[in-house]
Amino acid sequence: MTLTQLSYIVAVDKHRHFATAAKKIYITQPTLSMQIQKLEDELGVLIFDRSKSPVVPTAIGEEIITQAKQILSGAKHIEDMVSVQGETLKGSFRIGIIPTIAPYLVPLFLKPFVDKHPEVELVFEEALTEEVLKGLNEDYFDVGIIATPTEQHIFEHELFLEPFLAYMNPNHELTKKDKIAIEDMYEEDLWLLNEGHCFRDQTMKICKKNNEKRNKTPITFESGNLETLKRLVEQDFGVTLMPYLAMNDHDTRCANGVVKKFSDPVPSRKIRLVYSREFLKKNLIDSFADVIKNSIPEELESEEEKMVIE
Q1: Are residues 61 and 149 in the same domain?
Q2: What's the CA gap between 21 and 310, in Å, rounded?
Q3: pLDDT of residue 16
Q4: How many domains does the chain have?
Q5: Is residue 231 domain-shared with residue 98, that is, in the same domain?
Q6: Which residues form the HTH lysR-type domain (predicted)?
Q7: H or E element: which one contains 204?
Q8: CA–CA dist 306, 53 (Å, integer)
Q9: Measured on CA atoms in the order 193, 182, 296, 80, is the torsion positive or negative?
Q10: Cα–Cα–Cα angle for 193, 268, 192, nearest 5°?
Q11: What CATH number did the domain enclosing 74 receive?
C-alpha cells in the first residue's frame, strides 16, 4: 500500500469516474485502474462498485477512503512543516479562487509573488465558494480567495474592499446620471450570473424588487461568466453589475458600454484570503496576503464611504 494508491482512490471517489479522475491527476486511466486493482487485491476487498454509473464506493470502500484522506492529510502536514523551515519559502501552495475574482486579481499579483518566492509552486483552481470551503476542510486547498463570510473554524485575512460598478449600454437612461444610487437598480433590469455564484446573491441584495411594469427585453439569460454579461449589455440589452477589477481596464465611457460608479455609501464586497489551519504554512500565507495587498490598484484604497454587501 502506498500514498500514491491512496491518492488515486480519493480522486476516484471525488470524481466518481475513472477517466475523469485520471485526467485530473495527470495520469493515464489504465495506470489508475491498475494501481487501484492492485490495492484491492492486496486488501482482499472491492473499494469501488464498478457496475454502477457513476462509480460508487462499496461500504468497506467508504471506510477505506475516509482513512486514506486522513493518512494523506497527515503526510501533507509533514511536508508542509518541512517546507516552512529555513529562510526560503518553498513547496506546493494550492489556491481555490472564485471565478468572479480569478481572471482579474491573479494577473496583478502573480509575477510579484513568483519573483519574491521562486521556489513556491503555485496551483490555482477556480471553484465556487462552497467548493472552496469544502476543499479547505478536506485539506485539498491550502488557501482560498472568496468574497463572503466564512465558517467559524475558518481563519481569514481581509485583503481589500472591492466596489460594485454598473455597466450599461450607451443608450440606457441611467447614463445621464453622474453617479447612480442603489435605488436606481432593479433586479428585473439586470443580467445575472447563475445560481451558486456569490456575486449573483450580492447583486440581488443591492437591487430592489419592483412590481411596476418596466420596459424590459423579453429575454432571460443567466450566465456563469462576467464577460458574457458584458457582451449582452453592449448589444443594447440593459444593465449588469461588475466588480471593480473586472472593469479596471475600461474608461468610464467607452465605445461599447458605459461604466457608472455608485454614490456613497458605495456597495462593495469584501475579498478574503481564507485557510483552515493557522499553524501550517503561516509564513507563506502571510507573505501571499501581503503581496496581494501591495498589488491591487491604488483606487481600491480610496477613502470613499463603502457599504459591504455580504
Answers
A1: no
A2: 34
A3: 93
A4: 3
A5: no
A6: 1-58
A7: helix 198-206
A8: 50
A9: negative
A10: 15
A11: 1.10.10.10
**CATH at 118:** 3.40.190.10
218 pLDDT higher than 50: no
Q: How far apart are CA 30 and CA 21, in angstroms?
A: 12
Cβ pair 199, 162 in contact under 8 A:
no
Amino acid in position 34: M
On the 0-12 / 13-18 / 19+ scale of CB atoms within 10 A, 233 is buried
Residue 290: which residues within 8 A CB-CB, separation 6 or more?
Answer: none
Q: Does residue 220 share a domain with residue 171? A: yes
Domain that holds residue 122: 89-160+268-308
d(CA 238, CA 170): 10
Rounded CA-CA distance 106/155 in Å is 21
- End residue of a domain, out of 82, 110, 127: 82
* pTM score of the predicted model: 0.72
